[in-house]
Design goal:
The chain is built from no helices and 13 strands. The protein starts with 10 loop residues before the first strand and ends in a 5-residue tail after the last strand.
Length: 136
Amino acid sequence: MADITKSSSACAVDALYKKPRTRQAGAEIANGDACYIDSNGRLQLAVSTVWLVTGTTGQVAFDGLAANDIPSGTYGEIFGDGAEFEYSTGMTIGLALWVSNTAGKLADARVAAAGTDQPVAIVRSATVIELVRGVK
């Protein structure tokens, strides 16, 4: 498992067509960081050890990627399911991406121990990912 190196210029490439979710940040969040909305309605950095459990199954908490830098305590936007991001370079098309065990990062393999966790993004080109989970 390796974390994907996020480009310093990570950005949503189809933002005009997707509806972002606006929330207050509960942590310092950088552009392109993986996030989830906590039980207080605040954005937090997604990490493979934080799970949403429904009945006997669960998934790593993930709601989307930050559209820009969001200082803690301020409001910002995340994009989820269906959004495309210029994210990195040299990625393998078709590769599934998962929430990493490093807060805010995506990884090239499942990190969570077991369960029904699903990938959060699919690589669409050497530089673009499409989110397949998160807010709609």
